[in-house]
From TrEMBL:
Keywords: NADP, Oxidoreductase. InterPro entries: NAD(P)-bd_dom_sf, Sc_DH/Rdtase_CS, SDR_fam. It comes from Stereocaulon virgatum. It comes from the Eukaryota. Belongs to the short-chain dehydrogenases/reductases (SDR) family. This is NAD(P)-binding protein.
Length: 302
C-alpha cells in the first residue's frame, strides 16, 4: 500500500455541475430487452448478480453484518474482506463462511479493524484494494447502541456512539471512495442506519443512538450527491426491531412484548435485510442513490 493516504491524484469533481448524461433514444411500444442474448431465466439471475464483485463489510463478523456478508457471497461476490474489532468473532465468521464454500470460488479474509482509527482504516482499505486489485462494494454494519437517560448521559459515552456510528462510517466510506476515484472505477456504499433515525423508539432512552443514526441518513445523502460524478452510489438501510442477541435476552422480555404490539409485522429476522442490500449493490439498483430503505415491519408508518 502507498504511504500517501490523502486524497487521490487527479480531478475531484464537486457536487455541481453533475455529469450530463446521454439522452436515451425514444421509447418503443415494447421496450427493448436488456441482455437479448440471454434467456428470461438467465436475465432474472443477471439482474441481481454480483458475479466477480469485490466487497468490504465492516462489522461483518457477527449479527446483521455477517448475514449480509454471506448474502453478497451467495450472489456472486468473488472477494470479500470482513472488518471487525472482535477477533474471536472474526475467526468464527471465517469458519462459518468456509463451511459454506463448497465448490464456490470465493476468497474471504478477515482484518481486525477499529473503524474509529483513521490510520488503521486507511491502511486496511488500501491493503484490501491492492490485494483484490480493486474494490466495488462497501457495507457499513459496524455500530453500537446504548440506553441511557439524557440527563445522566456521560459525554464520553455520547461521543463514543458518534465515533463508531457516524465517524467510523465516514472514515471507511472516505477511504473506499479515495481508492475508487484513484482507479477511475465505480462503486456502491450501503450504510446501516435505523428506524430510530426517524422515530423516538420508546421506551428505551436512546438519544445518542437515534441522533447518530439520523446523521447516517444524511451522511449517505451528502456523499451520494458529492460522489455521483465519480460513479459511486451511496444509500442506507434502516432496520426495525431485528431478532439479534441485543433483542432476544431474558432482560428484553418486557420490551419484546411492546415491540410486538407496535410493529405490524412483528420482529424481523436478519435475513430480511439481505434483499434490500443486494438490490442496492447490483445492477437492479443501479438507478438508486441517496436513498434510505426502511426495513422495519411497518413500525414507522403510524
Amino acid at each position: 500500500m502507498a504511504d500517501d493516504t490523502g486524497p487521490p491524484k487527479g480531478e475531484i469533481r464537486f457536487m455541481t455541475p453533475f455529469k450530463i448524461a446521454d439522452d436515451l433514444p425514444p421509447s418503443q411500444p415494447i421496450p427493448d430487452v436488456v441482455h437479448p442474448d440471454k434467456s428470461p431465466a438467465e436475465r432474472a439471475v443477471a439482474r441481481f448478480s454480483l458475479a466477480g464483485k469485490k466487497a468490504i463489510v465492516t462489522g461483518g463478523a457477527q449479527g446483521l453484518g455477517l448475514v449480509c456478508a454471506r448474502a453478497l457471497l451467495e450472489h456472486g461476490v468473488s472477494h470479500q474482506a470482513i472488518f471487525d474489532v472482535d477477533e474471536g468473532c472474526g475467526e468464527r465468521a471465517m469458519a462459518h463462511l468456509d463451511s459454506l464454500n463448497n465448490k464456490q470460488d470465493w476468497k474471504v479474509v478477515f482484518k481486525k479493524v477499529d473503524v474509529t482509527n483513521e490510520d488503521a482504516v486507511n491502511s486496511a482499505v488500501g491493503d484490501v484494494t491492492e490485494a483484490f486489485d480493486g474494490i466495488d462494494i462497501l457495507l457499513c454494519f459496524a455500530g453500537i447502541t446504548e440506553s441511557k437517560l439524557a440527563v445522566d448521559y456521560p459525554i464520553e459515552s455520547w461521543r463514543r456512539i458518534f465515533d463508531v456510528n457516524v465517524h467510523g462510517s465516514f472514515l471507511v466510506a472516505r477511504a473506499f471512495a479515495r481508492e475508487v476515484i484513484a482507479r477511475n472505477g465505480s462503486g456502491t456504499i450501503v450504510f446501516t442506519a435505523s428506524m430510530s433515525g426517524y422515530v423516538v423508539n420508546q421506551p428505551q432512552p436512546h438519544s445518542a443512538y437515534a441522533v447518530s443514526k439520523a446523521g447516517v441518513h444524511h451522511l449517505a445523502r451528502s456523499m451520494a450527491a458529492e460522489w455521483v460524478g465519480h460513479n459511486i452510489r451511496v444509500n442506507s438501510i434502516s432496520p426495525g426491531i431485528m431478532n439479534t442477541r441485543l433483542s432476544g435476552g431474558p432482560s428484553q422480555a418486557g420490551l419484546r412484548k411492546l415491540w410486538l404490539e407496535r410493529s405490524p409485522l412483528g420482529i424481523g429476522d436478519p435475513e430480511d435485510l439481505t434483499g434490500a442490500v443486494v438490490l442496492l449493490c447490483c445492477d437492479a439498483g443501479k438507478f438508486i442513490t441517496g436513498t434510505d430503505i426502511k426495513i422495519d415491519g411497518g413500525y414507522t408508518m403510524f
